[in-house]
Amino acid sequence: MSLQDKKIILAVTGSIAAYKTPQLVRSLVKAGAEVKVLMTAAAADFVTPLSLATVSKHPVLASVSDGANWNNHVALGLWADAMIIAPCSANTLGKLANGLCDNIVCAVYLSARCPVFIAPAMDEDMWIHKSTQQNISKVRSYGNHIIPVAHGELASGLVGEGRMAEPEDIAGHIAAYLSEENKPLKGIKALVTAGPTYERIDPVRFISNFSTGKMGIAIAEALADKGAQVTLVLGPSHERTYHAGINTIAVESAQQMYTAAVAAFKDAQIAVLAAAVADYRPQEQATEKIKKKEQDLTLALTKTTDILAALGKIKKPEQTLIGFALETNNELEHATEKLKNKNADLIVLNSLKDEGAGFGHDTNKVTFVSLHNTVSLPLQSKAAVAVAIADQIIELRHAEKTA
Ligand code: CTP
């Protein structure tokens, strides 16, 4: 693990796990980093500023001003290559999610332009509370990286989820992210489609589906984390990504998605089509609102262009094309058909029969279907599934090269 010459801000907040932060500073410094520590008033109940100042060899900042001086949080935010908020208490998480700024940690966080890593730590009941989970989704949607909590003994005496990741793991996570060697997709361009499409019926109505775009966005982020320059063609979705390696093109209809995808595919080496594209659109789009008249109303629909199949037709040997299949029955059979008919290199199969998989959930359970084999993955977070998909793409491209 190397963090040679990296500048890191460690922000410590009020959780019992703060007692582990001198060890975290040690690990970061041992790996070559320069570390400056900030802490909230509540953190000082669990670890002393003196311990942290001693191991980091820098004064610890606990306030936006120390009486005589104003601590320049903007300059600090610009200085760092990475900011770690560890442990991140439920209270601080709530502040980060909502843009509150009443202490040095929040002020530096809001000013930071570097990647921010958040290692939450709290009791299990607090961790699973809806508001905490919503705050986690929010801060993740702002482009921050969440270091997953661990399962184990908690300070309350209970056993469960919510423990802060171990200091060595946190340091390893940052080192992996910042390390150039961990960018196997550097120089590679990737296209990802995500989200639903809207097919307009008239000026106020449309046909769509329940896709949220979460899975596709997670894939775009996993590819960008590995160094790819990603074009994300995103249908109407409330989800966003602020990853520096991703350029988002917002589209509405299947036709717009097709046009944007074909354009981006021209100089992409990887394409992952995770969007839930409408298969049909209204044959005619009424220019005025359709008025309620007869008992029955029949809408004539016509097929949209299948983007995956279209890209499969123009695919060059050095391009890797990944499709999804969302099935409710005969899953493997249908996925294999899609693989062959659409000339994809891999189909990521979702079954709606699997609990916790598919639309809306933060988890997913997928099976990789290629011409060579079928691999089923366990139920895991969409972020973890996305990393597995990115790794599988790297493996496929490597196998292709060495074949
Ligand atoms: N797809 C696409 N363009 C379409 C329809 C689907 O690019 N107009 C892509 C999806 O993004 C996905 C794959 O094709 O990667 C499979 O989508 P799915 O909806 O499972 O399959 P369909 O081909 O639409 O077949 P069916 O709805 O009959 O299962």
Structural write-up:
- The longest helix has 21 residues, at 382-402.
- It contains 13 helices and 21 strands.
- The strands form 6 sheets. An 8-stranded mixed beta sheet has the order 12-11-8-13-16-17-19-20, sandwiched between helices. A 5-stranded parallel beta sheet has the order 2-1-3-4-5, sandwiched between helices. The chain has a two-stranded antiparallel ribbon with strand order 6-7.
- The relative contact order is 0.09.
- Helix 1 runs parallel beside helix 8, helix 3 (73-79) packs across helix 5 and helix 9 (214-225) crosses helix 13 (382-402).
- With 403 residues, it is an alpha/beta fold.
- It has helices at residues 21-30, 49-56, 73-79, 90-98, 104-111, 124-128, 130-141, 167-178, 214-225, 254-265, 307-314, 331-341, 382-402, and strands spanning 7-12, 34-39, 82-88, 116-120, 145-146, 150-153, 159-163, 189-194, 199-202, 205-207, 229-234, 246-250, 270-273, 280-282, 301-303, 320-327, 346-351, 363-364, 366-369, 374-376, 380-381.
- 33% of the residues lie in helices and 23% in strands.
- Strand 6 and strand 7 (159-163) form a beta hairpin.
- It has 2 domains: 7-182, Flavin prenyltransferase-like (Rossmann fold); 189-402, Rossmann fold, CATH 3.40.50.
- It binds cytidine-5'-triphosphate.
- Cytidine-5'-triphosphate is lined by residues 193, 254, 273, 275, 277, 279, 304, 306-308, 323-326, 338.
